[in-house]
Amino acid sequence: MSDRVLPQKNEEYGSKEYWDQRYNLESEEQSFDWFKSYADVADLLREIVPVKSSRILMLGCGNSTLSQDMYEDGFKNIVNTDYSRVLIEKMRHKHAYAPEMEWHEMDIRDLKFETDTFDVAIDKGTMDAMMTAKADVWDPPEEVVQNCNREVDEVLRVLKKGGVFIYLTFGQPHFRKRYLERPETTLEIRKIGEAFHYYLYIVRT
Question: What's residue 13's pLDDT?
């Protein structure tokens, strides 16, 4: 990754302005995956989402190849969202060969979809970007708590009964469970990796 697309401060990862600048149409960066390619988690995702016609919401898609890889694996019904307009236009153009996929400029804390419209929602590190404010990780700022809870509340609203929210992150359970646990849902946590662990949080409605 070019140094010129890296933020000067980690908290810029939570800024829309940073992402618009990074995803500028003239940027040299074609794609970037924060961690774990689709190949690394494909077997798990196929197990969790056995029906390939499922309607899938990709939260904060960025320029990751995850949607493209899932599409090529047979998951055609993917709706991608990101709050960078620059990025969405770029990705819509790049994936013109895949007309079934949708691309929407949208804030994951305020989804513009009807209630009960998706079978699956996937967050691959997007919530993490909202947690980059300088603070004690054991006692995050109220803004971070509100933002993360708003995302989860919105995701659960747009999921159908029996739907599943999949969140892939490096964040350990004692830092993430507080946002994901709800009385009306079940939470499963799977640890991935050997020397350095990632976590797959599976929230079922």
Answer: 43
